[in-house]
Amino acid sequence: MKKVDLLLGIFVTGIWGANFSVIKLGLGALDPFLLTSLRFTFCFLPLIFFVKKPDVRLSIIALYGLLFGVGLWGIVNLGIYLGLSAGIASLILQFSAFFTIIFATFIFGERISKSQIAGMSVAFAGLISILAVTDGSVSTMGAALVIFGAICWSGCNIIVRKNKPANMLAFIVWSSLFSAMPLFLITFLVKGLEPFHGLLQALNGMAVFSIMFQSYITTIFGYWIWNSLMKKYPASSVAPLSLFVPVSGLITSWLVFDERIAFGKIIAAILILSGMAIFIYAKSIEQYFGDRIARRDPPRSGAP
Q1: Dihedral, 177, 154, 135, 141 alpha carbons, nearest 10
Q2: pLDDT band at 303; cut points 50, 70, 90
Q3: Mean pLDDT score of the chain, rounded to an integer?
Q4: Domain boundaries along the sequence of the chain
Q5: What are the two backbone dihedrals, phi and then psi, of residue 134, each rounded to the nearest 5 degrees?
Q6: CB atoms closer than 10 angstroms to residue 14
Q7: Which domain of life is it from (predicted)?
Q8: What is each CA distance from 297 to 49, 53, 59, 302, in whole angstroms?
């Protein structure tokens, strides 16, 4: 991966980590599904009138929109609403990196090296260790919902990798239409008209900031960059970058909500970062040790 693309990927994942705290700010005023539906409404309005439909079948755009809007962010927002802290949600969602790589192995035949498996194992240990936290920031139901969201995110990554839309901005804008409409319907079916009646009163400055940040910074900008990387590089090279999200998520949650970063969380974050580094630089690590072994044991000529 080119250095500029690597830096862009890390920058975007830093924004995504902060986004979990921004979501929690919005949930203080709005229903989780209504907040998510408003996020995607502003992603496609008014841009959909100025951006041509992408060169992908409408069924694929709709599937991506459903997985991304409802399966990923609608469910993740519900998990946070049910008590999961912003920082812990950002950690658990990173299971998506592993699901993406596993799916890509079966669908695209991408090879996973031994060093990459080692990196995944280290990062996986960090994610598992967070479930042992007992400071009240981990909700079992919330954690299960976010894991489901991680599976949906991996599905989104595979859709992009397989279809490779030429215009990523158009793909995000049009797919947001298929995110927003089902979310409005779910809000109505679950809560009736109640969330809509008090919408104008609930839209305080913090809620508006949350919606705008999620719409334009996190989704339009962030996923434009991310999906462009997914189209350009193998999934096994891009997906691990998302493991930086929890580091940003924990720091932001500490700054905004004074979430206690206990020793166990610090160890988990270190394991995740270490695993990400091993995974990203797996080829360089293998080449380095391979060259050292070759210099130490040069091939012998002649009969034994």
Answers
A1: 70
A2: very low
A3: 84
A4: 3-290
A5: -125, 30
A6: 18
A7: Bacteria
A8: 65, 58, 56, 15
